[in-house]
Amino acid sequence: MGPGRTTLVPPPGAASPVRHPEAPAPGTLLGPHYDQCFGCGEGQPHGLHLQARAGEGVSITAEFTVQPAHQGAPGLAHGGVLASALDETLGSLNWLLRVIAVTGRLETDFVRPVPVGATLHLEARCMGIDGRKIYASAVGRIDRPDGPVAVRADAVFIEVKLDHFTRNGRPEEIKAAMADPDQIKVARAFEVNP
Ligand SMILES: CCCCCCCCCCCCCCCC(=O)SCCNC(=O)CCNC(=O)[C@H](O)C(C)(C)COP(=O)(O)OP(=O)(O)OC[C@H]1O[C@@H](n2cnc3c(N)ncnc32)[C@H](O)[C@@H]1OP(=O)(O)O
């Protein structure tokens, strides 16, 4: 089935996700995977500064506080920003699997408006794996882990090789990321098993 027609539900026979034996313990803050990442990087002044934690199994919890720079309508978060927060949280699941993957498809339901100043509490879970396709779902709630649901998403990530980044990324940033003396950071920038 080609892109665009791929279902967001794992097909019958999809494998259950397996947490990598060296995945960080549940409750561990993952920290930014790349300091220039719009979702989690500390070097992006208007980024989301989303903070993700490992959950049980192949699951992630994350928090992100909506800033004035994230508005669409006055006083409300932009939908694309909320989709970014979902994408970042879902993408963090791959770190628990220790698989390099990129978002192929992301479908978002916007259920409630999210005001500036609100903290979105996100939870993502891997639902199944079929070859290179990783199926995952996420929900975002307002101000509390059990607050009202504001957004939901279903996604398919596609496993790629490291050269997906080195071939396609702008050379300046690739060189700078590879030159970092902290090799754990380099590995995390590319979401690779060190
Ligand atoms: C210095 C910098 C460092 C930074 C390093 C950061 C690295 C750490 C990243 C983590 C960061 C987190 C942040 C959030 C994650 C992003 O936001 S990732 C960015 C957004 N995503 C992208 O840019 C992806 C762009 N798309 C592509 O590059 C290519 O289309 C893909 C996805 C690699 C697929 O191409 P391909 O490898 O040629 O795939 P192909 O062989 O045709 O298909 C393989 C299978 O996948 C399925 N498939 C392919 N495309 C799709 C699709 N769009 N939808 C559904 N199914 C699909 C196919 O149907 C096929 O299924 P089967 O036939 O096997 O059942």
Automatic annotation (TrEMBL):
Major location (coarse): membrane
Localization in the cell: Cell projection, Ruffle membrane; Cytoplasm; Membrane
EC number(s) per entry: 3.1.2.2
Coiled coil: none
Superkingdom, natural source: Bacteria
Entry keyword set: Apoptosis, Cell membrane, Cell projection, Cytoplasm, Fatty acid metabolism, Hydrolase, Lipid metabolism, Membrane, Transit peptide
InterPro entries hit by this protein: HotDog_dom_sf (IPR029069), THEM4/THEM5_acyl-CoA_thioest (IPR052365), Thioestr_dom (IPR006683)
Annotated Pfam families: 4HBT
Domain (Thioesterase) ranges: 75-134
Catalysis performed (reactions): (5Z,8Z,11Z,14Z)-eicosatetraenoyl-CoA + H2O = (5Z,8Z,11Z,14Z)-eicosatetraenoate + CoA + H(+); octanoyl-CoA + H2O = octanoate + CoA + H(+); dodecanoyl-CoA + H2O = dodecanoate + CoA + H(+); (9Z)-octadecenoyl-CoA + H2O = (9Z)-octadecenoate + CoA + H(+)
Region entry Disordered, spans: 1-27
Membrane topology: Peripheral membrane protein
Major enzyme class: hydrolase
UniProt keyword rRNA-binding, yes or no: no
Family that this chain belongs to: Belongs to the THEM4/THEM5 thioesterase family.
PANTHER family: ACYL-COENZYME A THIOESTERASE THEM4
UniProt-recorded name of the protein: Acyl-coenzyme A thioesterase THEM4
